[in-house]
Design brief:
The chain is of the alpha+beta class. It is built from 2 helices and 4 strands, in the order E-H-E-H-E-E. Belongs to the SH3BGR family.
Length: about 90
Amino acid sequence: MSGLRVYSTSVTGSREIKSQQSEVTRILDGKRIQYQLVDISQDNALRDEMRALAGNPKATPPQIVNGDQYCGVWAGGGGGGSVGRGL
């Protein structure tokens, strides 16, 4: 796959995950960076793909991938976080 992908989920009971996903997409949209939103709740294979790319069998969304290069996960919040690496 090519291009920037943000792995997320539309089904979560975690306020933290919802907030992190919203923040990542808000930043990318604000910078007018094109990306594909991949909803891992639609298919377990997508969740497994996200975890394999992250190199963590327990990784949770949001996770960011550019092409086949893992860029990272949301780190922080409240304006002090960073979106990925290698963007």
